[in-house]
User: Fold this.
Amino acid sequence: MVVFAYGTRQCRSQWKPELIARGAQRHMEDPNAIELPAVKGYAVVLIVVWILTFSLAAMPAGSGQESADDTRLDYAQTQRDILKFEDVVNDVISSSFSSSPFALVQKAKGAYLPDYGISVSFMINIHRAVVNTPFGQIRSKVDAGPEAKKRRIEELKEKLIRVLMEKGDSFRQLRKSDSITIVGFFEDRVFPDEPNANKTIVMTASKKDLDEFGRKTDRYKEFRQRVKILEY
Assistant:
């Protein structure tokens, strides 16, 4: 039996007896001969199958691969790395506010966030002029003018950026796409009954940049430009 496949309405309208006879004669002369429209249709099917196969093979691993990365993460080691990083941040804060022992309200605490990286946050009161204690009120003698406060915050911010550069690469389990963020909450309440004038600073560096610039003090300016800083 001979089947002639025509893929267009125009071809079907040309199914005349002489065309069928011509096709039968051609088939008898060459049994492997196939009408051109059928060849075109078969070729189109092959192209579509090839494109679909290539697309599936080229698809990125996606969330499944990321989930696998998180599964392979050693959380115990990550926790140890976070604790070491917290200690460094707390030491920097203490040295910056050594003259104000009550400035640190909440020590640095960090956590690993899947699909993000590491986040470490702390809270300080930039100036506690009056602190209530069981033994009465303690008044700070440190200069707490607007310019002094701004200067102290800027100094601490620069020190923390250096902490990111010098210690951020210790989180070796993180992926290149992960980030390490330090969040500082600054309270600015002079007296207990006065309203707060708070400030938040968020400093973020990617794991990729930390691996590239980590511990390279001569490239601090380049690293400083890569760090994302948000203040509000």
